[in-house]
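Our working data are protein records whose layout never changes between entries. An example says more than a description, so a record of this kind follows.
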Amino acid sequence: MRRTDREVTELSDILSIIEKSSVCRLALCDGEFPYVVPLNFGYEYSGGELSLYFHCAKEGKKLDLIARNPNAAFCIDNPGRVQGDNGACEFTMSYESVLGSGNVEMLTQNTDKLHALAVIMKQYAPGREFSFPEAAVEAVTCLRLRTAEFSGKRLRS
């Protein structure tokens, strides 16, 4: 990382950034250009591994790309305020972000899908538990991104 003064090195701080976020941008391989899609997500850190969970329809471009190449990158960020009022090149923005990469896998077992959906709901409704109708679980595709690496960066206001 070029700006080591902005690097977030504590795992608890990185997880806090993720916990406060509501969107994960997933970048998939699509020939010459990447395909980036914003997704609702949930995360779990267990056994030294960060996993991100997503849900989507049963078909579509995202799933076609993952089937061809499961390598992916992600960006989770919390933008802050624009800072500065001097010259045009003296403005900056406070922010915090987590970037990384790994492999996406489609979860096919209902028990795995139920776990993924519970993790995703925890992101948006912490402390609550939900039940999921069997028909809804059958109708959805759940994905897990097993991260190979990730890093955090922050500029505080």
In short: Helices lie at 11-20, 61-68, 110-124, 134-139. DSSP finds four helices and eight strands in the chain. The domain at 4-155 is CATH 2.30.110.10 (Pnp Oxidase; Chain A).
